[in-house]
Amino acid sequence: MPVLCGRCRCVMAADQRPLNEVVFLTVAEVATVMRVSKMTVYRLVHSGHLPAIRVGRSFRVPEQAVHDYLRESYVGVESA
What residues form the membrane-spanning segments (predicted)? Predict the structure, then answer.
């Protein structure tokens, strides 16, 4: 069952590893890993495409969620 945070639609699956085993990344760290701007990460979080939790006024994104998002978004190019 997903857990919704505050005012936005960020979702985190509750059936994953225990929280003490989850590695959380800041928005800046996610932006570095994905090689995009922080604003792009915020858009992904607010749209619900990238799960996150809210800590005060900040967001934390599970590292595995970033890897899953990138894996699912991968587009292979076929040669002609």
Answer: none
